[in-house]
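Below is how a single chain appears once it has passed through the pipeline. First comes the sequence as given, then the structure the pipeline wrote out for it. We keep one example in the README because the format questions we get most often are answered faster by looking than by reading.
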Amino acid sequence: MDNRQVWQRLAFVMFLVAALGLGACSSKTTGGGGGSGGTLPPGTGICSDTCERDCTTDQDCDMTQGDLCCDLSPAGKSCMKASECPRACTTDTQCDMTSGLVCARVSLSISQDYCASPASGLQFCQSDNDCSIGNTCCSIYNQPICLPPSQCPNACATSADCKTTSGEICCTSVGSLEPTLVVPGLCLNPLYEPCPQTCTSSSNCTSMSAPLCCNGLCSDTCAKTCTQSTDCTNQICCKSAWQRLSSQQTKIFTASPTCMGTADSCSTCAYYGGCGCPGCSSAGGTCSGTPYSCSLCGEYSSCSLCPGCAPSNTGSCTGTAYPCSYYDYYSSYYCTQAGCTWDSTTSLCQGTPTPCSALTSETTCDASSYCYWSSGDCTGTPTPCSQVSSTNCSYNPGCSSVTTCTGTATPCSQLSSATCSNNPGCIASPVTSCTGTATPCSQLSPETCSSNPGCQLYPSPYGGGVPH
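Resulting structure:
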């Protein structure tokens, strides 16, 4: 099974696995809950391909393979790899402090503390001042914990409490995923955090990604409970402590991205965005400048788009075609399009390319490297810029549109993440903090150099040498 499925059965084991940098070792069907105390009812198991061995002492396990009898209370004990065995604790000294482990709560549903990395442990709080910079004291659970704002959605009772213009809805079924929530619902954007769909049968499930009704929720997979192996299909009924333990991980939800920044003025918006920013509107405009001659218009633009100009002929293909060897090891398609012959045995392009002047269509001309299609002479008298509409102004080289943009720009915080980028000065991003010290450019490999803004390779692989 993948890590997500392992979490569904044994959260605190995986916290320890993550702390030690290890991976999951099982490969069976996900276990599912149902009984009180976080375990399945007595005598009930999960249909699975294989089954762990329950134990009383370490001697019941294959110690030669590094297995120990691990306490998975309240489900019981099962043989597991020693490195994945959870270690209960009351103080940090009971943990491997040399490896950076501390004694911490790892789930709101588990009252016992376990040895884990500080990042895996929950940090409880009373106010934002109790949390590290950039985090907030999130009070949507039965015990407030420190989380980044991007992982603490706003509470709601109806969608009217949410930013519906940003795609948020009030999801009131979240309690079925996390029993420690103390709010009726959370404002979620389904694009970033799906809202679970409740069900009584699979016919209620309408999503292709979650077509099965499993324990009252639509899911992509669903474990089958059993009392004996005859209840399973080509599997065995596994009743080990590992299988009986249900999910106790605290579900962390993703909040909708917020629009950050300061909205630019409408005049700035007109300069950068053509007055398309929310809250701004165009107030007329004029076309000014001196248009290029029709011959220049045909060279820089499409002749038919320049008011007052028209093409004088159908056009021709000009330029100097690349030699056939240019296409060696490259592509048989472009080789043959250039009028050359492709040798599939040697992957070489041979022959003499068709001269650009011999290509009579724009399609074949563009397919031959270094040939380009000329629409021919463009004749006529260009229309003065002042007589060209603002819509067509930008098509005519030499003319420019001067448009006044008026209104009051909508604050970034009121924009949806989808429209945020339309307003210069606003950035759609989850509210998170970026801390630490950036790695110096000199310590980055050539492959990772460009990943750090401000670093670049010298000399550049594209030429140009060291910039001045």
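The longest helix spans residues 11-20.

See the next section for the split statistics.
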